[in-house]
Design brief:
alpha/beta, 8-stranded antiparallel sheet, 22% strand
Length: 432
């Protein structure tokens, strides 16, 4: 079977291991690889009821799923194929399966795709890759040996023929004095210009944050982390509010935004799962140090349709940073997240909400949106589930941006917070 740049999923089997369900699939995308895809048990049972595997047929899993208004649930299908016929086998599926399928369909980088938390490389693929690797190593050593033998032969032949002046060499070996004279007669090299551009003491670094560097449209090469190619964004199925202001404390009436700071963390995926369960929006602001520790959590939130923004690299107070250091910090963190999501990271929340004129000018320069808040649960301080819930109930208004953190008490409070906001007919949105 030829391999193209288009994704194709061949369904090999539906497996049950302990209490978990897996699809054994063969993914064709630039190369062929066998994977195990963990799915929810409900979808697995629905698929089993429709699909009877037969060695005379191949089963191609569709990369599309749609919402069935009549059944009030998502549906997808598998195409049953042989040389003479094809048949579509439709099955109902969960929202979780729909979102996973959507992520696989839209992922452009195979390395990122196979790192999705619900996918794992099957043993058969691993054995094939090891076998191929060993084969290539053997070929490599044989090639090196052949080249070495050929080189030795040529050197021996050359030394033999060069004994005679009249043969191929033509010239006598140059004397050392001649070489020295030739080197001395060469014009002196021009001084290295890079050394002439050392720091000019007259051009002092900017230390006053209110005095920004010269603004330029040329790319800044200072940032260590290089931003990779941008892909088409994942389309969220949850309500979203587009931010139009450079600095934002609230959103339009009728909506509220739940925002989560200081992740990613061991609670990230659980928070995402609660939001998904209630079909509501959410926005995450990640610290660069934690992004490097939990890159899979960033991908999990983004691939499930939630908004992600940056919250600085090390959670430093921006009022204590120069213009240059603020810029380095926010751009580095933004690029770090973008290299995972393959989508521009434009939302930014300064640690402690600390900002000055330099911070705002940098928002405008890089076309970022600063997201602050008007309701602070102080969950980082009280760390009490009931206190967090009571604060939301007594303070939240229509149009609020609510500040939460990725903590266990906030995770435990989240279902009651969502249910309360929904009881007030408030739309819980993601920010964009």
């Amino acid at each position: 079977m030829s391999i193209s740049n288009e994704k194709h999923i061949e369904l090999l089997s539906i497996e049950q291991k302990f209490d978990k369900s897996f699809l054994h699939i063969k993914l064709l995308f630039n190369q062929e690889i066998e994977l195990h895809w963990e799915i929810d048990n409900e979808t697995a049972n629905l698929m089993k009821s429709k699909i009877i595997f037969d060695e005379n047929y191949k089963f191609s899993l569709s990369l599309c799923s749609t919402w069935d208004e009549d059944k009030n649930q998502f549906t997808s299908f598998v195409t049953k194929l042989n040389n003479n016929e094809s048949e579509k086998l439709f099955f109902s599926c969960s929202e979780e399966f729909h979102l996973q399928l959507h992520s696989i369909k839209n992922m452009k980088d195979l390395r990122i795709l196979i790192d999705l938390p619900y996918l794992s490389i099957s043993r058969s693929s691993s054995k094939k890759e090891k076998s191929i690797s060993k084969r290539y190593k053997l070929y490599g050593w044989l090639t090196v040996a052949a080249i070495s033998i050929l080189s030795i032969s040529l050197i021996a032949y050359k030394s033999q023929t060069c004994k005679s002046e009249s043969l191929f060499c033509g010239k006598k070996p140059a004397k050392a004095e001649s070489v020295a004279k030739a080197q001395n007669s060469k014009s002196p090299e021009k001084p290295n210009k890079t050394n002439q551009h050392k720091h000019d003491p007259k051009k002092t670094d900017i230390k006053n944050v209110s005095q920004p560097n010269v603004h330029t449209n040329e790319p800044d090469v200072r940032y260590v982390i290089k931003q990779e190619a941008i892909n088409k964004p994942v389309q969220s199925i949850y309500p979203t509010v587009k931010l139009n202001n450079v600095v934002n404390y609230s959103i339009p009436q009728g909506s509220v935004a739940l925002t989560f700071d200081d992740g990613p963390s061991k609670y990230s995926k659980k928070i995402v799962n609660v939001l998904k369960k209630y079909k509501v929006g959410g926005t995450f602001f990640y610290v660069g140090d934690n992004v490097q520790r939990y890159p899979d959590c960033v991908q999990y939130a983004y691939s499930n349709g939630y908004s992600v923004g940056s919250h600085s690299m090390h959670h430093n107070d921006y009022l204590k940073l120069s213009y240059k250091n603020q810029e380095d910090d926010m751009v580095r963190t933004s690029n770090l997240i973008t290299n995972i999501t393959k989508q521009d990271t434009t939302l930014f929340r300064p640690p402690y909400g600390a900002k000055n004129q330099a911070t705002i000018e940098l928002m405008q320069k890089h076309q970022f949106k600063m997201v602050l808040w008007d309701k602070d649960t102080e969950d980082w301080k009280n760390r009490n589930t009931n206190t967090i819930i009571n604060y939301v109930k007594s303070h939240t208004e229509s149009g609020s941006i609510i500040l939460l953190h990725e903590t266990k008490p906030s995770l435990d409070a989240l279902p009651q917070i969502i249910e309360y906001l929904q009881s007030k007919n408030l739309k819980i949105v993601s920010l964009n």
